[in-house]
Amino acid sequence: MTASFEPTISTAGSSTSGLITLHIPATPAHTSIARSAVAATLVQVGATVDDVEDLRLAISEACALLLEHAAESELIEITLDCQGADIYLSLTTKTTNPAPELTASLSWTVLTTLLTSVESVVVRNDELTSLTLALKHRVQIPR
What we know:
The chain is an alpha+beta fold and 143 residues long. 31% of the residues lie in helices and 35% in strands. The chain has helices at 31-45, 49-69, 106-114; strands at 8-13, 18-25, 75-83, 86-95, 117-123, 129-138. The longest helix is centred in the middle third of the chain and has 21 residues, at 49-69.
């Protein structure tokens, strides 16, 4: 039996600030939805083309990291919070690995190079472990 997931998006706030939550299946095919949602939001905020492209790449790399560890048939929850020029992204999935190694990967290196800050949070549970990447980037907003 295979699980079927539909991507979902919910929003709260105005067009230039607020919280967006996106749930996508933890598959490579759905990463493009995350990239598009982040890019569209940054365009609404008025970020520069360079910032939009940096964050599109960051979402790709963050999803790649999570996909390496995601349990079968899980979702990736992506939360995007725009607070002025500060963009906060959180990506979370469930894994069967109680101690996933993230910092030795090329994706981690790309993330730490592109973004203001990158943190990983692992919360161990009985069956599945919650794995979260917390990302922050300060964008240039032309006046």
